[in-house]
Amino acid sequence: MKKTYYYSLLQYSPSLALAEKINVGIFYIFVEEQKLILDIPNHLQRVKDTFPHIDLNSFKMNLKRYAQIADAFRFDLFASPDPKQLIHQLYGQPNSTSLQFCPTHCGLYQSIDELLAKNQFLYFQSYLQTKKIADTQHILTQLELLFDQNNINRKLLKNKPTIADIKFDYSWKNGATNFIKPLSFDYQLPAYIGKKANEWIGKIVRVKEKLFSENLNLDFFTSPPQKIDFKPIYQDALQSLKEIGNQTEQRVHFYESKDIPEYVANLAAHIHS
Questions:
Q1: Confidence at 164, pLDDT banded by 50, 70, 90
Q2: What is the DSSP pairing of strand 105-109 with strand 162-163?
Q3: What 3-state class would DSSP assign to 44?
Q4: Which helix (H) or strand (E) holds 24?
Q5: In the prediction, which pLDDT does 34 show?
Q6: Contact at 8 Å (CB) between 225 and 133?
Q7: In CATH, what number does 137-272 get?
Q8: DSSP 156
Q9: When comparing pLDDT for 220 and 157, which is higher?
Q10: Do residues 72 and 78 touch, judged by C-beta distance below 8 A?
């Protein structure tokens, strides 16, 4: 059963006179759980790129303080909060040169964790391009949104299915058991691209016999690096992975993130047939 929540985007602009603003947080009010959350991006380099004058360390500390205020709030002090009034109570009135809360909106949710992940993808997408470590969540969110739109979530097994000790994100059955795993190669240093490819080549070799004996398939979804200079390194790494896949008699497949809609459409057609 879906429940109601309220949310407000937290934006930063050095001055109200400037039109340019950037999302730096999402403030949530979960009344039934009696819980407040201020969710902020894991990596904030995008703020520095947009406003070079900013002291990023001080800015991070200020955002952390805002998040701690939300976490420390107790609903028994304010039984039925009006969202706008609650924000003003916690953070004061907005001023012309600081963080600004946008008007509050109302929505429905089932799982707080899933809601946070989806909204991070929607509102913090620009941060994904400047992150310093690879993050597969944006691939997983694309898959999950399409799973939901095609009404196939209930046919998939979640909760980190494993082969040996190797964790995957989803699995589904069509005679064989198919395991789904996103792999992001969007690193800031090129050496990590080859390192990650080699790690997964070793894992595939390790479970190769199990794929045949237990009738298992592996479906990987890869995303390329944002940096153009790293694309040849990524293509070489992807080719090495595909060569290992070719040695498994079509039991290991590598798709790129752009192939996700077609993959999910084919999966939905099979499940609903």
A1: confident
A2: unpaired
A3: coil
A4: strand 22-30
A5: 86
A6: no
A7: 3.40.1350
A8: S
A9: 220
A10: no
Can you tell me whether residue 34 is helix, strand or coil? coil
- Quick one: tokens of 123? 């509102």
Burial grade of 212 (CB within 10 A; 0-12, 13-18, 19 or more): exposed
% of residues, the chain, pLDDT over 70: 89
Task: Go through 39-62 and write b for each residue having 16 or more CB atoms within 10 A of its CB, e for each that does not.
Answer: bbbeebebbeeebeeeeeeebeee
- 10 Å CB burial of residue 166 (0-12, 13-18, 19+) is middle
Q: Work out the average pLDDT over 99-115.
A: 89
Q: Two tokens at 70?
A: 């939300």
Cα–Cα distance between 233 and 81 in angstroms, integer?
53
3-state helix, strand, coil in the chain (%, to 5): 45, 25, 30
Which residues, including other chains, have CB under 8 Å from residue 251's CB and lie 6 or more apart? 211, 212, 216, 217, 218, 245
By CB atoms closer than 10 A (0-12, 13-18, 19+), residue 29 is buried
Residue ranges covered by each domain of the chain: 3-118, 137-272
Rounded distance between C-alpha atoms, residue 168 and residue 118, angstroms: 19
| Whether the predicted pLDDT of 40 surpasses 60 | yes
What DSSP assignment string belongs to 80-110? S--HHHHHHHHH-S--TTSEEEPPPEEEEES
Nearest CA to 116 out of 30, 241, 240, 220 is that of 30
Closest CA to 16 of 95, 107, 110, 108: 95
Whether the pLDDT of residue 162 is over 60: the answer is yes
Residue 125 has pLDDT above 90, yes or no: no
